[in-house]
Write a structure and sequence with these properties.
Length: about 240
């Protein structure tokens, strides 16, 4: 009888473990709580409205016009490319506005907690992969959700709430609050993401990157605002109405 009971318990534990592997949401729910890191809290404008000082990326793909950063390609892009801050960040609050122009439905995003990955191509100069990024990505204004670039791929984040409040071809006001291993996002005054990374060892201090996605046809996106608060004083989304 005891042998039968033991076998049943082993089978139940094995089944539960197998289910956990199949169910990323359950694994995410068990993410550890990493407290916000401590450091100097200061608010800095990442964009001066006139130049790309403080940023680096391909000059033929990124420019400034009428007070906004323009991301635009006319030839196909094999790899997603980024406009990257020269400074690196760990805990921060980033507020900005982004707009996808008519003619493309491909998402963009803001990347962070990662590293620049030019070695994605064996011929980086030919394939234009100098400003490729590996890290966390908050996506907008289509394909909402989060992605682990060159890692786990799609993360278990529901894009539904963002899709309800996002504007496909108009300006979207966005706030990203990254603290510890927790990411919160607000779009147009509504909280749409609250997620903790179940693998905090993946988190790295890294640049902020604006994404121009790989695509075989022309696309154009605009960004403005871009103000960052390092080591935020308030542990909450401040743009939520």
């Amino acid at each position: 009888m005891r042998t039968l009971l033991t076998l049943c318990l082993v089978a139940a534990v094995s089944a539960a473990a197998a289910q956990d592997k199949k169910d990323p949401a359950k694994k995410d729910a068990e993410a550890p709580v990493v407290k916000p890191r401590e450091g100097k809290s200061e608010t800095v404008a990442l964009f001066d409205g006139k130049t790309l000082d403080g940023w680096e990326g391909y000059s033929d793909l990124w420019s400034v016009k009428d007070g906004v950063i323009v991301a635009k390609n006319t030839a196909p892009l094999k790899f997603s490319t980024y406009l990257l801050t020269k400074n690196k960040y760990s805990d921060f609050r980033l507020t900005f506005s982004a707009k996808l122009l008519e003619g493309s439905e491909m998402h963009s995003g803001v990347a962070f907690w990662g590293t620049v990955k030019p070695d994605v191509s064996k011929e980086p100069k030919k394939e234009r992969s100098e400003y490729t990024y590996a890290g966390h990505l908050v996506m907008f204004p289509s394909g909402y959700g989060m992605y682990d670039l060159f890692g786990r791929n799609g993360l278990k984040v529901d894009g539904g709430p963002a899709k309800k409040v996002g504007k496909q071809h108009d300006w979207n006001d966005i706030e990203v609050l990254a603290q510890g291993n927790r990411v919160r996002v607000a779009i147009n005054g509504a909280a749409v993401v609250d997620w903790r990374d179940p693998q905090p060892e993946r988190i790295k201090e890294g640049p902020i990157g604006l994404q121009l996605h790989s695509l075989d046809k022309p696309q154009e996106l605009h960004f403005k605002g871009l103000v960052i608060e390092t080591f935020p004083k308030d542990d909450k989304l401040i743009t939520v109405k």
